[in-house]
From TrEMBL:
Gene Ontology cellular component terms for the protein in this record: plasma membrane
Pfam families according to UniProt: Glycos_transf_2
Domain Glycosyltransferase 2-like positions: 18-135
Compartment(s) where it occurs, according to its Swiss-Prot or TrEMBL record: Cell membrane
Name under which the protein is recorded: TIGR04283 family arsenosugar biosynthesis glycosyltransferase
Amino acid sequence: MSAFPLEQEHRPPGTPLSIIIPVLNEADALPILLAALQPLRAQGAEVIVVDGESQDGTPKLARPLADRVLISPPGRARQMNLGAAQARADALVFLHADTRLPPNALTLITQALATRLWGRFDIHLDGRSHWLPVISAMMNLRSHLSGIATGDQALFIRRDAFDAVGGFPEQPLMEDIEITKRLKRLSRPTCLRAKVVSSGRRWDQYGAWRTMVLMWRLRYRYWRGASAKDLAKEYRHVR
């Protein structure tokens, strides 16, 4: 459990899980994700979409299939923090628009958070490149050994732990790496072997190994102390 006692903030009963989805111009991907989340809504989970001022009609598409659609200035960390602040459940999961949870996600997350403060799923990257299964396996191994997770692994966090680390740091890149580093000071994560399926569109578009090397380089520089702002500029430039 945690390295120190955490004060539990109780929410109204009846909402077992809040699924928070930060989006920006995801009109193609988001309706598919939200349709897949309807069985979880039927089990009592709430779905919160936080839009970062999309220009493609994403909020309008989201409203019929989500419990709430919030509008925020763009910035994934800022959007996720806003969603968490409005969430009703004590269990939070942060989901990218191109990532699908396994069908039994609610049970898996509930069981995991009964004994640990946070966790993540293994990942399967879905796309054209035949390298994606290898990259997926490398990502899962790295995360298992390091205890560090990325946002496309569907991070799930107890609210008291989320509040204890101050939520996501509002930086333009590596906010997932940073929050998991802080959460590790409270406890090791639960590493679920069940897999989320995430789109490999980034790897397909820019080249699988080119993208992998870029991400390794950026993470290494972040580890060495480079600012997230400078790294975000490089990331956007390369892409």
